[in-house]
Amino acid sequence: MSEQAGEAVPAAQKSSWTSFLKSLAGFTGDLSAMTAPPFILSPTSLTEFPAYWCERPELFAAIADGKTEQARALAVLKWFISTLKGQYTSRNESMGSEKKPLNPVLGELFYGYWPANAARGGKTTLFVEQVSHHPPITAYRIENLDKGVTLTGHSAQKTSFSGGSIIRETSRACSSDCIPSVWGVRGIPDHTSRLRIDGLSYGSPYIELAETSYIQSSTGWLSTIEYKGKGYFSGKSHSFKATLTPPSHTSPHVIEGTWHTTSKESHSGATFHDVASPKEEITVAPIEEQGEWESRKLWFGVAKGIREGDFESAATFKGKIENEQRQRRRDESAGGTTWELKHFKHVEHDPVYERLGKLFKANPPTEDGYAYLGNGPHSES
């Protein structure tokens, strides 16, 4: 390990980190099944991650305010780019480096909301359910019913190790609806994305996005977001270039910048997105009011141990939860039953993905999905 590793890795954890790196190098398959050293664990479950889609809820609500197809397509792109900082750099800012989130159990739930105000109209709510454990798949629903805008989707992740970096591929199928439906704002934000987790050799992991994301509107407008991040020898961290192409394929809008700070429209030089201002945390019910399957109550002991540096306690609570889940699966197998989802239903073919995917030759051309059942709890404002 380098001298930098001595600074990034707690002294008591150096040997376990070295062993972990050696295990990574020889591991084949999905890394989500591996056990990471306690000091690199996040106290947050992966079921909370969909909240990153709406930490600037005024931008989400503003999608419904566009008066033209172009205005709405630009609003969707601005909202999407503005979510990336929270999704991919916030752990480095709050915890010093990227952390491995807690792997949710099947049936785990997360609920929250952003209260109503004049800037965004009504309350914005979030419902999340872990719909699969192996592979990990998280389904979610975000809605501001007063504004008539919703987001329904799921994310499935596959993680591998290559060239000294962790490679995480995320398959997402999402649809964003604006009401009235004649406005036709439907899209597939980030239907597939690839990211690298670098900085492993010195124990301070960070994320760099790679490849391309697409947002396809039913009106024909297509956003193509190319991530250009920092390479080993050149480049600027978190750089991107977004091209919004109209149905006519003429006069596209081009936006360039860094997704964790600001970007500008190339033709005018005007600021397109700016995430320098503080994000708005989601409001969640107190632990004592949560049900046993809600994330923060389920993982309370583990999260407390991680935050306090009591990794032995965290490991004990974590092991208890995992053993209970294994026993639940054995009992279901013995009884010939399967887990029943609460808020979502698995569908073999996602018609929105397939219809919009044809417009830009999405790969893969078909996807399964999770349909929202319309039964999420609605917190009081």
Query: Which class do the helix and strand fractions yield?
Result: alpha+beta
Helix content: 25-40%
Main sheet properties: 7 strands, antiparallel
Question: What spatial form do the alpha-carbon principal axes imply?
Answer: globular
Poorly predicted segments: 1-7, 160-169, 179-187
Q: What is the overall number of helices?
A: 9
Q: How are helices and strands ordered from N to C?
A: HHEHHHEEEEEEEEEEEEEEHHHEHE
Family: Belongs to the OSBP family.
GO molecular function: oxysterol binding
Protein name: Oxysterol-binding protein
Pfam families: Oxysterol_BP
Give structural notes.
- The chain is an alpha+beta fold.
- It has nine helices and 17 strands.
- It has helices at 3-8, 14-26, 57-62, 69-88, 90-95, 295-298, 300-307, 311-335, 351-360, and strands at residues 41-45, 100-102, 109-114, 124-132, 137-144, 149-162, 165-178, 192-198, 206-210, 212-216, 222-227, 239-245, 253-258, 262-265, 271-274, 344-347, 369-372.
- Strands 3-4-5-6-7-8-9 form a seven-stranded antiparallel sheet. It has a six-stranded antiparallel sheet with strand order 10-11-12-13-14-15, with helices on both faces.
- Helix 7 (300-307) packs antiparallel against helix 8 (311-335).
- The protein starts with a helix and ends in a 9-residue tail after the last strand.
- Mean pLDDT is 81; it is low at 1-7, 160-169 and 179-187.
